[in-house]
Specification:
This protein is mostly helical. Helices cover 52% and strands 6% of the residues. It has 7 helices and 2 strands, in the order αααααββαα.
Length: 140
């Protein structure tokens, strides 16, 4: 896979919270006070970090946390949350890129906010070759 879809699955808030927790050994309440949020929110943030880490550790390059959140939500919502399931949908033409409409098509419907770059990342995450756009093909 040439493209690492989303190398850092942690957002800025998660990075800051985990740094304060692990490096500075602060409590949830101390982290919350420093970041200006409730300690309940810090519990949620750190639980999400734990889940992301477990996903990455147990699935390696197939970890869903390696794709951007919008795409991750799309894949989970459509039961395509593993590279094998996504690859099967692409190979069966259930999920395709429509060059003329410049849209992704899943089961005849066009999901919003999933563009060309996301299609390339999905193909690579599924273990398929990175597709070239029509302009990339013409430029050769």
């Amino acid at each position: 896979m040439n493209l690492i879809p989303h190398q850092d699955p942690l957002n800025a808030q998660q990075k800051e919270a985990i740094c304060l927790r692990e490096d500075e050994r602060l409590t949830y309440r101390e982290i919350a006070a420093r970041m200006g949020v409730s300690h309940h929110r810090i519990q949620q943030v750190l639980a999400a970090v734990k889940a992301l880490r477990q996903d990455c550790e147990s699935h390696g390059a197939a970890a869903l946390c390696l794709v951007p959140k919008r795409m991750r939500d799309f894949l989970e919502w459509n039961d395509l949350a593993s590279p094998a399931a996504l690859r099967a949908a692409i190979e069966s033409k259930r999920l395709v890129w429509n060059d003329s409409r410049k849209r992704l098509i899943l089961d005849g419907k066009s999901p919003r906010n999933i563009g060309w770059h996301s299609w390339q990342v999905m193909c690579e995450w599924a273990g398929l070759p990175r597709p070239e756009s029509s302009t990339e093909r013409i430029g050769r």
